[in-house]
Design a protein that fits this description.
Helix content of chain B: over 70%
Oligomer: heterodimer
Structural class of chain B: mainly alpha
Number of strands of chain B: 0
Mean pLDDT of chain A: 86
Radius of gyration of chain A: 19 Å
Shape of chain B: flat
Shape of chain A: globular
Radius of gyration of chain B: 26 Å
Mean pLDDT of chain B: 80
Order of helices and strands of chain B: HHHHHHHHHHHHHHHH
Strand content of chain A: 35-45%
Distance between the termini of chain A: 55 Å
Number of strands of chain A: 12
Low-confidence stretches of chain A: none
Largest sheet of chain B: none
Number of helices of chain A: 2
Low-confidence stretches of chain B: none
Chain lengths: 185, 401
Amino acid sequence: MKPALAFVLAVAPQFLLVAGLAVREEIVRSTGVEVRLLVRPYDPMDPFAGRYLGTPLAIERLDLATVPHDDGLFDAGVVWVTLAPGPRHWTPVAMRLQQPTAPAGSVALRAEVRSRVSDQATNVLWLDYGLGRFYIPQDGKDPTTWRRSDGQRPELLLVARVAASGRAAVVDLLIDGEPYATWNR
Amino acid sequence: MHKAIADELARLQQDGTLTAAQRAEVERRLALALAPPDRRGHFAAVVAVLGAVLVAAGLFYLVGYHWDRLGKATQLTLVFGIWAAVHVAGFRSTVAPGNHPRFGVALTALGVLCFGGAIGLVAQIYHLESRYPNAVLAWWVVNVPVLLWSRTRAVQVVVTAIFLVWVPWHIVVWFDELPGWRWTWMPINFGLLAGGLAALFAGLAAATAGTRFATFRGPWSGLAWVLALLAPFLLGFHELWDDVRPGPPDVAAAAGLLAQVAPWVFPAVALTIGTIGAAVATARGRSRDASSFGVIIGSAVLLCLAAALVPAVMPLLANLLLLGQLVLLAWLGSHRDHAGLSVLAIVAFAIVVFARYIEYLWDKLAGAFAFLGLGALLLLLGWALERQLQRHRARRREVHP
């Protein structure tokens, strides 16, 4: 094998992998349905990844008593959460074991079950949608410590796009309805 | 060439032991074997690789800064452009035309590191996250072809280091999700994992010896020994096994443990690869490699089986195994005139003594007796070995006065 060809074959998978990641996210962003999800934020630092806001979603912990669901769902590894638009953000209306055909105007979001909390009163699932991070610039303002003029915390909504496959991609973070980049100016 | 050797060769030719052609060939081979090491070249390579690591650190800082004043397309273009340019420059410097091979290797190592930066940047742009460190997994796995292509130690060290970051990271996340796990599971499994990885690297080192990848043998062999010592060291703490009741081997319980503890997958896979590597080395007739690496692999197997079947005796077994490995390592160091192995044995012995002192010999009187006894024993052993060496030399002088 020629050295140049061997070199290209050795290096090409790296470029393909990174490019594939970007292309996959672009496809979800361009074809998915936009949803807005309520966030309860905190602010960790990751020395390897740069500064980001953790974005634990309000729909991350779901009490099965409050959402219609399939039998046997409490022991499942992967579930499908159907979301419907509310006045300010989207809320869960059903949880299924298999990917459902979402009614018009709603989406089905894929989630992995991280843990289960069960007692006499509740059966709560802690779900992971893969939407837990929003990267902000090193010198960007932190909405989690910021307060309005009335001393109240701002409302944080994570904007994501959900593809037909159930995969979701983060698009933006709204602080009191304002996109982060605009709010940060 | 050394004058004494040259004179001896001349005499051998004069008395007819060597022909002129044979003498010339011996001189050529000795010249090659006795050539001084390329210290300046090594120094240049080390400086260049350190530079590559610093440049990579700078790029990671830039990525971490998340310079959002640059648009997404600009960021992607910059990262792909710089990354591709680094790899191409590395290829041109090492292969075609290949004018600066050491500098080129440093650039290839930089390209390997840039791959991680590129993954991080794309994750940042698209706000990606992963519970398990899959980005680090991709980082080392997809760099393996570059490692095989470059066949250089600089790239080997970088890829191996990324691998060694990924393994414990993955396991810690896995542990975090285990329901009702006990704290002792973590060090026990890391101990077993160290044994498994030791077997893996011993197998890889054995498999590469004598092949076109022989340059990988040294670092992987050294790493195998470090991990082989780490395994019984971790598993030798009695506190880990305090809640285990002595009794006959419980195969059913061992099978249950195997089914529940996922990190066992790593030692199992590593042991398999290690064993295959040792078998390949044996088949090629390099018994020296195979025997020492066989000890590492056998130790890992013994530790895994004992932990599952007779956990109550693990502290004793692990400490005995560790002492045996230290003695073997010291013997290999002196037998093969390999200072690194001897130093490793001495440093490891000091760490073991300190750790066991904290664990077992906190009571001063017991500690004093133990150290006095063991120290006297080792002094006696040293005296006996030196005496034997002197007799051996005396016999040689009698044969070759």
